[in-house]
Amino acid sequence: MDTQTLATTAQDIDFSLLALFWRASFVVKLVMLLLTVASFWSWAIIVQKFISYRQARLEAGIFDRAFWSGEPLDELFEKIGSQPDGPSERIFASGMVEWRRSHRKDGELIAGAQARIDRSMDVAIAKATESLTRGLPFLATVGSTAPFVGLFGTVWGIKVAFEQIAISQNTSLAVVAPGIAEALVATALGLLAAIPAVIFYNKLSTDSDRIIAGYEAFADEFATILSRQLDA
Predict the structure, then answer these.
(1) How many helices (H) and strands (E) does the chain have?
(2) Looking at the whole model, is its pTM more than 0.85?
(3) Which residue among 36, 43, 115, 164 is least crowded, i.e. fewest CB within 10 A of its CB?
(4) Is 108 helix (H, G, I), strand (E, B) or coil?
């Protein structure tokens, strides 16, 4: 087969992503599908976290202004109720519920009230933390493993390509190129999944730490206010 015929044959090969996928071996297809699903799932988590973090910051800001407005805490608690929606309100409500439970019918405080109030708010903070960080471990897993999964698909695809060369006993471009191209797509998909996952995992982890630190700071300030009343 002359050079012109080889070039014509190579040009006739479809190198679109869909064609490369359908020509790939079962293992490489499985790797491609896994990485594609991981990428879409990562983006779903990223978008959801951006929305939920924005809502958490807005809720915290609104509640913070209400808390420091000078309104009596009992009145604020009555407005919020014992089953509030936002994390900041739930932390406040948990402290207020325990504060009220710590009073006997005669108005005297039950011993250990401060410790119980602190633990109650700590539990509320822990639940808020769990909600904020849910999904982030998946991003970390994708960011650390996707390149290696893609590399495995590439190695397997190259192995299959060499097997085809050995079977056909033909090293022409038309025989070699499709298998190598299919294999390299797996690496590209691995990087496509890993890079955004790593970037946004770091970004979202920092954002969640800041929000959680705000909750903890508020709990400390609220506990200090209640401790003054306990000592009065």
Answers:
(1) 8, 0
(2) no
(3) 115
(4) coil
